[in-house]
Amino acid sequence: MAESKDPAEANPEEPKPTEPESTTAPVEPSEGEAMAVVGEEHPGGVVSKETGPKPTPEAKPAVKPVKKAAKKKKEESTRVAAATESLSLSPEVEKAKVVKAKGSKNVHSGIAHVLSTFNNTIVTITDMKGNVIGWSSAGKVGFKGSRKSTAYAAQMVAQDASRQAMGHGLKEVEVLVRGPGAGRESAVRALQAIGLDLTVIRDVTPVPHNGCRPPKPRRV
């Protein structure tokens, strides 16, 4: 009677046989597994290198808005730079205002005489022989009183004189600075900013060698 029992009932703890793996559907490997099995042989053939992770089409449009934003920032920066340059003494803005003189002398190189004192600034531009082709002073530009001796007045004076000289075709200038005033450097910088090429900058301030008797001290 004991032999008539089924073998499955005799060993209840033994697991039941599972179905073979070949009957199940093939499982797609993950990205890490796909990279690991590249080049290994399989019953269907050798796995090609293209089984690795490929860039998704969604990643491309994510880069375009960044480029557009960068382009917009560049355009805004160029606009701001152009606005700041228009306020400065850039050669492009000043050259447009130069009008050719009626009796143009076609002088390409000349000498700029800058006289800067404690009370005034006078800029005279001549050709190489000494013939005046343009001049200006703080009073001519419109400054009065103590404003005539400022650095800004010297800047405006140099611009006015250089425009007159550039109307005759002036391009190169030798600068001769004379006097201890406050408009020495600003006048020279204005000449360079307006578009003239400065070849020489020389200080010709006269220095006494105890030849003449100085005037008596001022009574205040």
N- and C-termini, Cα separation? 148 Å
Relative helix content: 25-40%
Structural class: alpha/beta
Which strands sit side by side, in order, in the main sheet?
5-4-3-6-7
Cα-atom Rg, whole angstroms? 44 Å
How many E strands? Answer: 7
Mean pLDDT value: 74
**SS element count, helices:** 7
β-sheet strand percentage: 15-25%
Oligomer: single chain
Major beta sheet summary: 5 strands, mixed
* Strand/helix succession: HHEEHHEEEHHEHE
Overall 3D shape? globular
Low-confidence stretches: 34-39, 83-96
Structure report:
The longest helix has 29 residues. Strands 5-4-3-6-7 form a five-stranded mixed sheet. α6 runs parallel beside α7. The chain is globular and about 70 Å long. The chain is an alpha/beta fold and 220 residues long. It has seven helices and seven strands.
How would you concisely characterize the structure shown here?
With 220 residues, this protein is of the alpha/beta class.
Keywords:
220 residues, alpha/beta, two-stranded antiparallel sheet, 7 helices, globular
Helices and strands in order, then pairings?
Layout: H1 7-10, H2 31-36, E1 41-42, E2 45-46, H3 59-87, H4 91-97, E3 109-116, E4 121-127, E5 132-137, H5 138-141, H6 151-166, E6 172-178, H7 184-193, E7 197-203
Parallel strand pairs: 3-6, 6-7
Antiparallel strand pairs: 1-2, 3-4, 4-5
